[in-house]
Amino acid sequence: MNGEPDDYLRAVEAALFVAEAPLTPAELRLHVGDAGDLAAVLRQLTDEYAGRGINLVERGGRWHFQTAADLAHILRREKDEARKLSRAAMETLAIIAYHEPVSRAEIEAIRGVQVAKGTLDVLMEAGWVRPAGRREVPGRPLIYATTVDFLSHFGLSSRRDLPGIDDLRAAGLLDPVDLALEGLGGQSVLENDDDVA
């Protein structure tokens, strides 16, 4: 291997190592230039760091080094204070993740109940949800989307890695009411109201 590719690989590695936040390939190129094949170098570094104490990972199109998942517990100096999200916050987060970008009215339509302002505030304070602009409809409602921190916290490369309905069923995470409704073939309980009248 000649000196140029090795120097480029070392420059990419150094830029990622000292970065204060995960970097996109475009941001990396601002630091290291276009002297090499950045995608190939990122693949090579990912392979070289696999199985070591730190790993090079890509989350939401951004690259960074992180402690290997199986060693993270060793490096914690203080116990993280577990913040348990309310059921409303969990439902709201799931709706935003699966339907983004989504407005408050759309979240309320899916949940069937009104969303408290505090619920969205908690998710934004956690860094998992962000305002994503305004919907181009009358009233121009604010729309919400998930963040790179959301992907990183849950170990997802992209939203495509979110579990599907079959995964949730296999894990036993579906509500018994959901399973009962699914057993009706998705038939709405309200569909039978005509029989009563």
Automatic annotation (TrEMBL):
Entry's Gene Ontology BP terms: cell division; chromosome separation
Alphabetized UniProt keyword annotations: Cell cycle, Cell division, Chromosome partition, Cytoplasm
Record field: transmembrane: none
InterPro entries registered for this protein in UniProt: ScpB_csome_segregation, WH-like_DNA-bd_sf, WH_DNA-bd_sf
Source superkingdom: Bacteria
Residues in coiled coil: none
A Pfam cross-reference name: SMC_ScpB
Official protein name in the record: SMC-Scp complex subunit ScpB
Species whose genome carries this gene: Sphingobium terrigena
